[in-house]
Amino acid sequence: MNNLKVGLISLGCDKNRVDSEIILSNVKRKYTLVENLELADIIIVNTCGFIEAAKQESIDTILQASNYKEKFNCRLLVVTGCLAQRYGKELMSLLPEIDVMLGVNDYDKLNESIEKCIENKSDKIYNCGYSDSNINEGKRILTTPFYRAYLRIAEGCDNCCTYCIIPKIRGKYRSRSMESLIEECNALALQGVKEIILIAQDTTRYGIDLYGKKMLPELIRKISEISGIEWIRLLYCYPEDITHELIDEIASNDKVCNYIDIPLQHISDDILKLMGRKGRKADIIKLIDELREKIREISIRTTIIVGFPGETESNFQELKDFIKLMKFENMGVFKYSREEGTPAFTMKDQVPEEIKSAREGELMLFQQQIVETAGKAKIGNVYKVLVEGRKNDLWYGRNYTMAPDIDGLVYIKSRKDLQIGTMVYVKITDSIEYDLLGVVCDEFSE
Q1: Could you read off the pLDDT of 387-403 as tens digits, one per residue?
Q2: Which CATH class is domain 148-377?
Q3: Which among 186, 197, 273, 408 could disulfide-bond with 434, CB atoms 3.0 to 4.6 Å apart, if both were Cys?
Q4: pTM score, two decimals?
Q5: Which residues are annotated as a binding site?
Q6: Residue set of the binding site for [4Fe-4S] cluster
Q7: Which CATH architecture has domain 5-127?
Q8: What is the CATH code for 382-443?
Q9: What is the pLDDT of residues 304-349, one digit of tens each?
């Protein structure tokens, strides 16, 4: 059985990616990992079940993976993750191609479940237990480039936004111990990781359950003391939980990127209230003003939901005016997805799909214009850039304003070969939509 080969498909967010990396480490103890699914005896699909588009992608991927049973070596199809946790036996019944199904709290049962299923041949295995205490942590096999890694500092969520199913899938908010996080960061640094990206459903609440207070600033300070770590990046910071202490830490700590991801979702107080969000417009504007005042050249990313039930033309106009005023450096816009099991599912005044799509397109057009104008203003600036690869004659990487996979890139002209995973200084010479173009500084004669 130890000769069996396992391939994994990971879908969804970076938090799900961490689960996949833990799964890979667990599986490797007993089986051989392969990237080519045609060689795999066992295929694991780690699914996402957050919104309709993600659910459909997960189902399509499961069906595609099941084809490997007929065409190639696959003997066993394993489904894990949020879709499995959310729909459980219903999904297993609808998709008989699935042999083993495990929820988000049962990855430690993976090897045992695979072994049982193979030994019993016809019996299917199902484990999707709900938990408010389990935290997936432990050794990981990184699926990111060697120089960066996500660090999930907490599991679950207590915010209970009316559009979101995550608390029912992932359970209540529970922080990892600071000791375990520092130990993991030390191990990552020894592997060559330079950029640590802090993630959770809500990073700003870190420590509130374990230590009785928000401990994110202290965690950041301890990580910044680790040799080899050069960048610390913050994602998923809820606006109402961003403290003055956190702002001061970002401003004063040279290892913390002057970058923050704040999922605002909307700005109209009426809609924020319907969404179950705690923050309000006046507080949000005050926070953004403080961030920009205290943190030099901070880059703020946000996400916006359009078409939430009850969103009127007046609410949408208020949102447009806000975005024009704030000029966020990076912004994602998503159409509201009506999810069963959430309070918003039964709300009145559901917005038609065509209106959602029109509003999404309108906001993204505004944002593209904002980013293009900001990009032109960066011409002549010099940035430290983390080199990530080469495409044709240009190298590419990211500066502090760019989170991987969601923001733009810096394309680099260099007469010399650059080393992937190193930092170089780049002078910006042009911008193209969301990306920047520059030249390595030592090629200039000042």
Answers
A1: 999 998 999 999 999 99
A2: alpha beta
A3: 408
A4: 0.94
A5: 13, 48, 82, 157, 161, 164
A6: 13, 48, 82, 157, 161, 164
A7: 3-Layer(aba) Sandwich (3.40)
A8: 2.40.50.140
A9: 999 999 999 999 999 999 999 999 999 999 999 999 999 999 999 9
